[in-house]
Design goal:
Blueprint lengths: L9 E6 L7 H14 L4 E6 L6 H4 L9 H5 L9 E3 L5 E4 L13 H12 L5 E6 L5 H7 L6 E4 L3 H22 L5 H10 L2 H6 L2 H11 L1 H13 L3 E7 L7 H13 L4 E7 L3 H7 L4 H4 L4 H15 L9 H25 L5 H34 L5
Helix pairs in contact: 1-14, 5-6, 6-10, 6-11, 9-10
Length: 380
C-alpha cells in the first residue's frame, strides 16, 4: 500500500541512489536526535546483506533481526530491541541475506504490515542503496522520504535516478493491470530507452487522454509526494548548489517537487566517533556535523504541525555558509590571536601531510615484513 500509515506514527525512509554517501550515519544520528527531543523512535536496518547500522550506534552484533523474522525463527516484536540511547529502539538487519531482492512478495508485504503497526512516534527505515522494487516500495511508505546524496557527479545523478524510479513505481501502483493506461505503458516498455527519455509531464498528458480517471488519481498522488533531499559530505558552501540541480531536474523532467532538508559537511569527527563505537551526536554533540543533524531533526519535528512555506533550498544555502564559517573559525582564531601566522599554518599542514605519507609507507613496509615472516614460519 502506498503511503499506508495506520496510526499516528511517521515513517521516515532514508534512501540513496548509491552507497557511501552517509545514509546510515544520518539514520542513526537522526533517531538519537529525535529521541533526545522526547520522541519514541524505532530505527530499522534494511540494508540487508550489508547490515552494519548496529556498528554506528555501538550495538553488539545482533543475534536476531529482519532476517530471523523473515525466516520465521523469531516474532517481529522480539526483534525490536532497546538501545543505550533515550527513547530509541533498534531493529537489526541480517548480513546473511544477500539483499532485498531475495524477499518474496508475501514476505515483503508481511514486513510492510508489521512496520505500519509499530507503536512509536517515528519509524526510521535505513534502506539499502539502489533502486530495487522492494526498496522503492518501502520508500513510498511515506510521501516524505529522505534522499541522501553527495556533491559528486555520480552521487547527484544516482539521487535523481532514484527519484525517477520512485515516480515510475508510483505510476505502476496507480495504473492497475487491465486499465488503458497500464496497456499504454506496457507498449512503451518494449522500447525502454524511449520510455526513460520521456518527460513525465508529457507522459501524463498522453495518459490523461486515454485514461483520465486513473491519471487524475496519479496526479493527486504525485502532488502529495514531496521527497526531502539532504546534501551530505560537502566541503564548501558552493557544494550545496548541487542540490538545486537535482531540484530543477525533478521539476522539469518528473513534474516532482523536492524539498531540501539541509546540508551536512564532511567531518573526520564521524570516523573518530565510529572507532569509539558512539554516534557522532553523542561523541561530539557540538561538532558542525552533529549540529547539522540536530537542525534536520528540528525541521522534521516542525513538520508535524506545519509545512515548509519558505524556499528550503535557499535556507540550505544559508546553513552551508553558516556551517562553513563555524568550521573555519578555529583556523581564524589561531591566525587572529597571533598563535600562528598564515605561513606557519601552511607549513604545519604540509609537514603533517608529509608525516602521514611517511607513516603510511612505514605501515606498508611493516605489513610486508609480517607477511613474509609468517610465510617463512617465523613468529612475529
Amino acid at each position: 500500500m502506498i503511503y499506508g500509515i495506520i496510526n499516528l506514527m511517521q515513517i521516515i525512509p532514508v534512501a540513496s541512489g548509491k552507497g557511501g554517501v552517509g545514509k546510515s550515519l544520518l539514520s542513526a544520528n537522526l533517531a538519537i536526535a529525535l529521541g533526545q527531543a522526547g520522541k519514541d523512535v524505532v530505527l530499522a536496518d534494511l540494508d540487508l546483506g550489508a547490515s552494519n547500522l548496529h556498528l554506528v550506534i555501538g550495538q553488539s552484533s545482533p543475534k536476531t533481526g529482519i532476517g530471523t523474522f523473515i525466516t520465521g525463527e523469531t516474532k517481529f516484536d522480539d526483534i525490536i530491541e532497546d538501545t543505550d540511547y533515550e527513547n530509541v529502539r533498534f531493529i537489526a538487519g541480517d548480513s546473511e541475506i544477500p539483499g532485498l531482492s531475495s524477499l518474496k512478495f508475501s514476505q515483503k508485504n508481511s514486513l510492510i504490515k508489521k512496520f505500519q503497526n509499530v507503536q512509536a512516534d517515528y519509524l526510521i527505515l535505513d534502506l539499502g542503496a539502489g533502486t530495487h522494487l522492494t526498496i522503492l516500495d518501502l520508500f513510498l511508505l511515506s510521501p516524505q522520504g529522505i534522499i541522501v546524496t553527495a556533491p559528486t557527479v555520480t552521487a547527484t545523478l544516482n539521487g535523481y535516478l532514484f527519484l525517477k524510479n520512485a515516480v515510475f513505481r508510483l505510476m505502476a501502483a496507480t495504473f492497475k493491470k487491465g486499465t488503458k493506461a497500464a496497456e499504454y505503458l506496457n507498449k512503451l516498455k518494449s522500447d525502454s530507452a524511449s520510455l526513460q527519455r520521456l518527460y513525465i509531464p508529457k507522459l501524463i498528458e498522453a495518459l490523461a487522454a486515454i485514461d483520465p480517471e486513473n491519471t487524475e488519481k496519479f496526479k493527486t498522488r504525485l502532488k502529495k509526494f514531496h521527497p526531502r533531499l539532504i546534501m551530505n559530505m560537502i566541503d564548501e558552501p558552493k557544494d550545496a548548489d548541487k542540490a538545486q540541480k537535482i531540484r530543477r531536474s525533478c521539476q522539469q523532467y518528473l513534474g516532482l517537487d523536492v524539498e531540501s532538508l539541509g546540508i551536512m559537511y564532511r567531518d573526520t569527527m564521524q570516523d573518530k566517533a565510529l572507532s569509539s563505537k558512539l554516534p557522532v551526536t553523542v561523541y561530539k554533540p557540538n561538532s558542525v556535523l552533529s549540529q547539522a543533524i540536530f537542525r534536520i531533526a528540528e525541521k522534521i519535528l516542525q513538520g508535524e504541525t506545519s509545512t515548509f512555506d519558505s524556499d528550503t533550498f535557499e535556507l540550505a544555502a544559508e546553513e552551508a555558509n553558516d556551517d562553513y564559517t563555524a568550521k573555519m573559525s578555529f583556523v581564524e582564531d589561531l591566525v587572529g590571536t597571533g598563535a600562528l601566522s598564515v605561513t606557519e599554518l601552511a607549513d604545519m599542514i604540509k609537514m603533517q601531510q608529509y608525516e602521514l605519507t611517511q607513516l603510511k609507507n612505514e605501515n606498508i613496509l611493516l605489513k610486508s615484513k609480517i607477511v613474509k615472516a609468517a610465510q617463512q614460519g617465523f613468529k612475529v
